[in-house]
Structures
1.
Amino acid sequence: MKANSSPKIKKVSNDKKGKVQDVDNSKSGNNELAQRIDKLNVLLANQISLPRVFLRGVVGGLGSILGATIVMGIVVGVIAWLLVNLVGVPVVGDFIDQEYVNEQFNTL
């Protein structure tokens, strides 16, 4: 094997068949690799840019607040429903005053 010879690299083509081709590791191969690395560097720089990270944080924070509000609304609704329905149970019903429960629901 010669010291100057460059090894062959297998490359998957971008067509739908996904054929594997042998490609020389020559100047054209290095140039293509450099172009791909440059493209990846640009994409990475866009992903970690300060405005994009800030916007991602704002959207994530608003989503968390909205999700917590919905969950808490469901939890409070279930607890209120349980309190209204537990008034009929002899031991628990005496503990929960029917007039107090009705008064609280009438203020809503």
Note: The mean pLDDT is 75.
2.
Amino acid sequence: MPPFKQPSFQERAELAAKARQAALENLRAKPPIDEAVVAERRAARLAREEAQAKAREEKRAAREREKEARKAQAPGTESPEKSVAAPTEAEKKGDDGRRLPRKRPKGTKGSWPP
């Protein structure tokens, strides 16, 4: 087996030029864009988008109707302000019954709390 021969700069440049030329030929070999096909695809896309928008709108309207039906069926939903109970004295003061006892400050002796 012959030893590996490092390609020279000219050889690498020639290979790159050949590869570039082959890529250009492949690009030129593609058929041109047909305007009729483009117009057909555009029309299909617009029809699909319109159908999706219509479906979204119908779904939103159905949710609204369902929401109104639930609101009409629920008893005592005349006004949300009336259904809220008045706060108790403890709630007004902010006491929720879960307070921890205060710790005695450092350096104080004797009875605590004052």
Note: Helices lie at 9-29, 35-73, 80-83, 89-93.
3.
Amino acid sequence: MVGWRLRERARPRDRSSDNTKAFRGALLAVAGGCEVLVPAGTFRTAPANLTSNVVLRVDGVMRAVENRSAFPKIAVSRAASPA
């Protein structure tokens, strides 16, 4: 069962549009269990979290936004090489 169709709030025609707010809103709207449909088209988004029991069905294309500040920085530690 589709609980949310991304096209209702997002703009796929403009390939530079940032659809993060619509995408995150759709995921929050179905939190706890349902489906989010990303229809045909190209959608740009920053990272978002999928919760348990949420299905993400992508019929279109999802691309990352070009704004690097939208992505969290993750600290990576390097393990010592085995001797």
Note: Strands lie at 2-5, 34-38, 42-45, 54-58, 61-64.
